[in-house]
Amino acid sequence: MIYFSTGQAAKKLGLTVRTLRYYDQIGLLHPSSKAENGKRSYSETDLVTLEKITLLKNLAVPLRDIELILHQVSIDELLAIHQQKLQQKASEIQRALEHTHTLRNSIKIEGELNWKQLLPLVHNQPTTQSSWTDLLSLSIEESEILQRDMPKLENESADKWISVIKRIQLCLKHQRSPQSEDGQLIAADILLLSSELFGPHTDLEKAFWDVRKSPEASSSLNLYPIDSEVLQFIEEAIIFYEQHIKE
User: Final residue of a domain: which of 44, 72, 100?
Assistant: First the structure.
C-alpha cells in the first residue's frame, strides 16, 4: 500500500493542506494513518474518496450532505452528474456568448446600443419552427433550412450581412442611389449571399424577403429590425440589377 503525506496528497489533488486538515477535523475524511507525532498519511483509497468529495463540492453539494452520500455513489455516477453540470454551464456560456455577439453586431449596425430593439431579442425565446411554418406557410424542410442557415445577430456568420447594411447606410448618407455603381455592387453581393443562404429554394428566398419588408412579421419572428430606407434601397438595387446588369 502506498501512502502520501498531507502535503503530497494536497498537491496531487490540487487542494490545500488546510482543507485536508479541516476534512479530518469535521470527520468527513480521516487519513488512514496517524503517527504519534501527529503526522498524517493518506492511502490511495483515501485519495479516491477525496476525489469524490471534490466532485461533489463542484456540484455545490454542502459538506454536511457529502458524507451521507459519499459511500452510496460510484465514481462513474459522480462523473455522470459532473458531466451534466458542465453541460449546463456550457449552455449558459454559449447563451452569454450569443448575447455578446448580438450586442457587438448591433453596435456595428446602429453605431450605438439600441436597447429598445435589443431587449426583445435577448429576452424572447428563440424563434420556433412552428412560427416560421405558420407565418410563411412553409414545409417542415423549408422551416428547418431557415432555422439552420439564416444569419442571426448573435452569430459571427452575420458579419457579411452587417457589412452590406453598413455599405447601404453609407450610400444613403452620401445620397448614392440604388442604381449607382456602389448600389449595383451591393445588389450583386446581396444576390450572392442569398444564393449561398437559400440555394435552389427560390420560393423560400422570396418568402423570407417578404417577411423582412414587414416590420410586424419580422418582429413576430424575433428578427432584428432593419431600417425601412435600407430595405427600400435593397429592393430597388436588386430590381435594377436584374433588369439591366445581370446576364
Answer: 72
For the domain that residue 40 is a member of, what is the CATH number?
1.10.1660.10
Query: Is residue 116 over pLDDT 80?
Result: no
The pLDDT of residue 220 is: 66
CA distance linking residue 212 with residue 218, whole number of Å: 6
**Buried b / exposed e along 175-203 (16+ C-beta atoms within 10 A):** ebebbeebbbebbeebbeebeebbeebee
- Taking each helix axis from N to C end, the angle separating 44-58 and 6-13, rounded to the nearest 10 degrees, works out to 40
State if pTM tops 0.85: no
- Asked whether residue 62 is assigned to any structural domain, the reply reads yes
Tell whether the model's pLDDT for residue 61 goes beyond 50.
Answer: yes
Spatial separation of the C-alpha atoms in residues 55 and 75, rounded to whole Å: 9
Domain assignment of residue 104, given as a range? 88-244
Q: Is the pLDDT of residue 119 over 70?
A: no
- Residue showing cell 498524517: 40
pLDDT of residue 130: 42
Judgement on whether residues 67 and 95 belong to the same structural domain of the protein = no
Instruction: Report the relative pairing of strands 3-5 and 33-34 from DSSP bridges.
Output: unpaired
Tell me, yes or no, whether 77 lies in a domain: no
227 and 107 share a domain?
A: yes
